[in-house]
Amino acid sequence: GMSGVGLFQSKVDGLDAMCLIAPANPQLPDPRAAASILIPLSKIVPRFDVDPQPLIQEAQEIEDRLRSQQASQQPINHNIYG
Known about the structure:
The chain has helices at residues 2-12, 31-44, 53-72. With 82 residues, the chain is mainly α. It has a domain at 22-72. α2 (31-44) packs antiparallel against α3. The chain is elongated and about 65 Å long. 2% of the residues are buried.
């Protein structure tokens, strides 16, 4: 993927690089995954001060909407024999 290409190219160019990855849902925006990267990143990068709370709040809103949509859907009866 893109992280592998970036890491490979940095080696070719003689640059130090690292890639931080987090489990994320590829089907939806996943601000919780972004927040999960910001927290440890702020501990290892000097003067990196980004508040993850807006991302966590957005994640909660998305999760609430998904739960609401799932609760409002009617179950589908797949019984083909009766």
